[in-house]
Amino acid sequence: MVTALHSRSSMAVAMQLFGLLLATFQMTDGNTGVCYGLLGNNLPPPREVMDLYKRNNIQRMRIYAPVPEVLQALGGSKIELMVGVANEDLYNLATNMGAAYAWVQNNVRNYPNVNFRYIAVGNEINPPAWEANYLLGAMKNIHRAISEAGLGYQIKVSTPFSAGVLGESYPPSRGSFRSDYGWFINPIVSFLVDTEAPFFLNTYPYFSYIYNTQNIRLEYALFTSPGTVVQDGQFGYQNLFDAILDAGNSALERAGGGSLEIVVTETGWPSAGGTATTKQNARTYYINLLRHVEGGSPKRPGRPIQPYKFAMFNENQKDPEYEKHWGLFFPNETPKYGVSFY
Q1: Rounded Cα gap, residues 154 and 56, in angstroms
Q2: With contact defined as beta carbons under 8 Å apart, do 139 and 199 qualify?
Q3: Phi, psi angle pair for 235, to nearest 5°
Q4: How many whole angstroms separate alpha carbon 139 and alpha carbon 119?
Q5: How far apart are alpha carbons 46 and 336 in whole angstroms?
Q6: What pTM value is reported for the model?
Q7: 204 with 216: CB under 8 angstroms?
Q8: Residue 59: CA atoms inside 13 Å, Cβ hemisphere, count?
Q9: Where are the alpha helices (H) located in the chain, listed in sequence order?
Q10: Beta-carbon neighbour count of residue 134 at 10 Å?
């Protein structure tokens, strides 16, 4: 059940449309989180992982399935949790309300000491995948079960998209969802507006860069451009992260979701195994991301961005090679970059 343990689909890689310091970098940043994937055979046990989050003041966690050992280890901590629903479970949850009640009971209500914040229903689902026909139904049923449990004020239900849902993205002000996805995504946007839940977007300047190196400079992807690269009306873009994010904001406005906040449910840079995958590039990306997110984007300045960095550990059971090297920490819990969160 690969999608349950870790996710960042190859389709999202292909469809992304955009195409330091010597000492430890420290800053207070309660808005950021880290994704905790499990596709490794040498990872520390969950209780040690929780201690590692706490020692590094990582206040938010994303997991891709409600793994009991992880939920038990989280009990009593203040770590804010985003828990995933596996893609393969969507049909049952959409067509059987009893299954949704059972999912919420087994994976949320049975862990009253876990600080649940979000439920991510599926991950990077786009037509024509069969799951697209059941995604909204599953979201509605999980939301209903959460609300009837008296937890709707605390736990919001959404679904992570890749930038592949954007039909137009350059310049960011022209951002729009793919016209052939309208039947699929517009009702989801309406649901999020009605339930006051955020829009989840996996945002990877890395992939945008490596698939379009002729037109995108590495500095633009790493937040190190010395000045404006893209002037879009009144807004100037000095980094690719902001450009992707604001293309999403523009698309939401066109779909009636201008009130929605975008939560960046995955972002990162691998340190080996592929194009531009060096420890220095990855470290530069993470440090500059941490510096940047408190200020918002050009389209929404002063509104802190919530990013979840991908990922906590290198995971040695993934392919191709660069997929093994996204961790902020090695499996022995040694920090890879000397970047701390406090």
Answers
A1: 25
A2: no
A3: -105, 130
A4: 9
A5: 19
A6: 0.92
A7: no
A8: 9
A9: 2-5, 10-15, 46-55, 68-74, 90-95, 97-104, 135-148, 182-195, 205-210, 218-221, 240-254, 279-292
A10: 22
Q: Give how far Cα 92 sits from Cα of 95, 142, 187, Å.
A: 5, 11, 20
Q: State pLDDT tens for residues 333-342.
A: 999 997 665 4
What gap in Å lies between CA 204 and CA 19, rounded to an integer?
Answer: 10
The rounded distance, in Å, linking the Cα atoms of 38 and 123 is 16
Range of lowest pLDDT (14-23, 27-36, 196-205, 249-258): 14-23
CB 245 within 8 A of CB 17: no
pLDDT above 60 (res 27): no
Q: Which residues are catalytic?
A: 124, 266
Which of 265, 264, 263, 268 is closest to 313 using CA atoms?
268
Residue pair 16/48 in contact by the 8 Å Cβ criterion: no
- Per the listing, tokens 């995948």 go with 129
